[in-house]
Amino acid sequence: MLPYVDPGLQHRMKLERERSLARHGFRKVGSTARPATDPDKVVEVLEQRGVDRAVLVGNVFSLGVQPNFDLAAALARGINEATYEIWLRGRDRLRGSILIAQQDPDQAVDEIDRWGDNPAFVQVLMCSASESPFGRRAFHPIYEACVRHNLPIALHIGGEGAGISSPSTPVGHPNTFVEWYSALPQAYMAHLMSMVTEGVFERFPTLKVVLLEGGIAWLPHVTWRLTKNFKAVRAETPWLTKLPAEYIAEHFYLSTYPLEELPGERALERVLGMENLANRVIFSTGYPYEEYGDPFEMVAGLPEDLKRKVMVENALSLYGDRLL
Amino acid sequence: MEPKKYPVAATADIPPGGRKIYRVNGREVGIFNIQGTYYALKNVCRHQGARVCLGKVTGTTLPSKVYEFKYGREGQILRCPWHGWEYDITTGRSLFDPEVKVVSYPVSVEDDQIYITM
Predict the structure, then answer these.
(1) What mean pLDDT is predicted for residues A200-219?
(2) In chain B, which residues have pLDDT < 70?
């Protein structure tokens, strides 16, 4: 069929297919090798790059918006089992994330309880694509389970617009990949505001949330806007005992891969200087994909003290002894 | 400058639940009567300088558990007419951050005369 399609769009379809194959782990763009399929090779790469501990985010980006709740829960169980048996067992350099399908909180809680005391896992993971914002009370049992096992909860973008989720932007489905991907932090903005205002951190004061692959520069904007507006309508949420900015600075962590390309000299340093970000941004990679740049290069220009926070200390403060 | 006591109004001018704005020593001040006790607040919101004492005198949702709504403090809360910042009339403090405070003045009553000290 392809030769009969408009040549310009034929090209777009080919690009789409390449990207889709790459994103689903079949091969790296422009190569035929299947990347990151051999745990021992991955450990070798980590050694070479000087990475002492790597937290695996074996995500299925749209698991939490799969319309069949039992299929989603079964996939989560299988992936966690496989992650432990194939990757984590006996490899001290690796740690895992307990993947859950949040659309059925009951089964998600069971899955957290199943792995929560296993020291190979350091966080719970769910996709940020969702049927509703994460502050909603239906999700609270998930947070209760995280707190019970002293595990942070990580979110990963990528399923927005799929399955039972809303369109990936508030104005509908975008036309292109670049729009879709660039707009994904909007999901984090919505979840963050929902979790703060619905009192998740009043109910679960030790819960920490990690926002993966969504950039960092939007965070000050949301913090300022939410905090400003809260002052005018505090009476809506009388259970909040702190300003939104305080909850955000205490409970949310972000990751470096991929960063916005911040223009100008020492721009990253300037952003890290806002809203306590210096203490809650954690180095991450998109390994084995590096479509968005070399993750080490992104932080190479930071002064040593900041680099140490981003590469070491912030992760230790978040994950604690489970990383040691 | 030493604080000075200024006569502002007769007690009969501001019945319980009432509020009036006066100009005292060059400043606009709102005098509020909450169940027979008088309070004086400077008529300037700490946010953007609105004439806060013109705002609604009301109650509000009290500190509560998550998802609980308890109404109370009727007549003790002043809500700024511009952006809705809530102040506790009895202290001048905002409800979202006690450090944010409308200037308040000590009030005394002698022989049915209300005085404020500024």
Answers:
(1) 97
(2) none
A232/B84 touch (CB, cutoff 8 Å), yes or no: yes
Cα separation of A165 and B76, whole Å? Answer: 44
CB-based burial label for A133 (10 Å; 0-12, 13-18, 19+): middle
| Residue extents of the structural domains in chain B | 5-117
CB-CB neighbours of A147 under 10 Å? 17
Residue A200: φ, ψ to 5°: -55, -35
Q: Which of B66, B86, B94 sits opposite A199 (nearest CB)?
A: B66
Please provide the DSSP assignment of A38-61 as one string: -HHHHHHHHHHHT-S-EE-----T
Stretch 47-66 of chain B: residues touching chain A, C-beta under 8 Å? 47, 60-66
Candidates A203, A230, A238; nearest CB to B61? A238
Rounded distance, CA A180 to CA B96, Å? 37
We find that the CATH architecture of domain B5-117 is 3-layer Sandwich (2.102)
Residue A246 is predicted with a pLDDT of 98
Q: Does residue A238 belong to the interface with chain B, where contact is any CB pair within 8 Å?
A: yes
This complex has an ipTM of: 0.88
Q: Mark yes or no for CB contact B64/A239 under 8 Å.
A: yes
Query: In this predicted structure, what is the pLDDT of residue A32?
Result: 53
Measured N-to-C along each axis, helices A218-232 and A185-197 cross at an angle, to the nearest 10 degrees, of 30
